[in-house]
Amino acid sequence: MKDFVVVIPSRYASVRLPGKPLREINGRPMLEHVYERAMESAASDILIATDDDRIAEAAEGFAARVCMTGEQHHSGTERIAEVCDLMDWTNEKVVVNLQGDEPAMPATLIDQCAALLDDSAADIATLASPLLSQDDFENPNIVKAIVDDNGYAIYFSRAAIPYARVPERLLSARDAALHHHGIYAYRCGVLRQLVAAEPSQLEIAEQLEQLRALSLGMTIRVATPTVRPGAGVDTEEDLAQAAQDLSS
Question: What 3-state class would DSSP assign to 205?
Fold first, then answer.
């Protein structure tokens, strides 16, 4: 596996869960749990990228390195691209985007995602698991990944895809979709290309920034994680579930 770094983009504002990175899970900020998962990985360096002094202060409190970024960013991808420039990383440098609301992402999966970029044909790498239920298939907050026979993404959607044309094909349709997880690996050059491009119509419609990469003709390698990660955190219910995941 090639050398890689982890960047954890973190912003204070959240419509559904205000102050999300600093919300406590088992007595400590969620961001600290995410940082610990990164520390357990094989990453050569770990940075928390933020534009908020409250997050920076909390991160420095548990001895994390912080990179202060601009306030103009609309996504974690844009924030990490700025980090690449601030740190003067080369276009070939591999960066794992470990999102700040994924406290139960095992370190082995951080390593697995980074290792997928050893495949020179892949521009981006990510992970996705089989769906657990019909409710998950129909839930727009669970992003579905559709993958070709070689393990490359065809499409990502909030919709229940593929559509079962006849009822008896519903289970096979669900089995063709995967539950996409919030982790990515990129080379810095790919990040720079992504943020230089305008959002595509698909991205605007679905509010999924990985669709910009597909619209640009980039390849996204998708692998099944070696262990299933715990849930990401977007709501109070997710926060309670994360506490349970991290206690088990």
Answer: helix
